[in-house]
């Protein structure tokens, strides 16, 4: 199932933003809640929640991915002590995925446990604008909706890292 979509964060990480496909057709919305809660919900066109993501707790470096029924789909966490930007996505069924990017790159690859490329995403916004992302999903195992929440988790973890480094 190959699918390319675009979505973005917002200034102050709050409010609604659109999710669009490569033909610029609106597929859904991201509800970025508030800048202080660090939660995000993916909504369908009827504004019904499909997936959501949030930090496990306030000072956590782990991002939880939850479906509309409230069932945890996985955890995103950053791998430390690496010369690349590396994250992992762990599913409750034991499946795991590696999310990796060269240190100064805006392009990320997501690999399954067999080291096969299942998705790619990159930050397509400029330095002074809000983060916007392009996702190419090649996976039958991970839905596009789930990957969007995973990517927003990677983005949230990086924002926390940047805030900690500047204080």
Automatic annotation (TrEMBL):
It comes from Cytobacillus horneckiae. This is Uncharacterized protein. InterPro entries: LOR (IPR007612), Tubby-like_C (IPR025659). It holds the Pfam family LOR. It comes from the Bacteria.
């Amino acid at each position: 199932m190959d699918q390319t979509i675009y979505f973005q964060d917002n200034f102050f990480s709050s409010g609604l933003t659109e999710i669009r496909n490569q033909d610029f057709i609106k597929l859904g919305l991201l509800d970025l809640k508030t800048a202080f809660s660090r939660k995000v919900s993916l909504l369908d066109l009827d504004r019904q929640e499909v997936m959501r993501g949030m930090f496990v707790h306030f000072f956590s470096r782990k991002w939880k991915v939850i479906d509309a029924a409230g069932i945890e789909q996985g955890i995103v966490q950053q791998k430390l002590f690496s010369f690349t930007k590396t994250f992992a996505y762990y599913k409750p069924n034991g499946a795991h995925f590696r999310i990796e990017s060269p240190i100064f790159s805006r392009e990320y690859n997501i690999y399954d446990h067999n080291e096969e490329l299942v998705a790619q995403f990159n930050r397509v916004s400029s330095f002074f604008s809000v983060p916007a992302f392009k996702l190419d999903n090649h996976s039958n195992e991970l839905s596009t909706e789930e990957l969007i929440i995973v990517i927003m988790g990677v983005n949230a973890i990086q924002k926390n890292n940047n805030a900690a480094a500047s204080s």
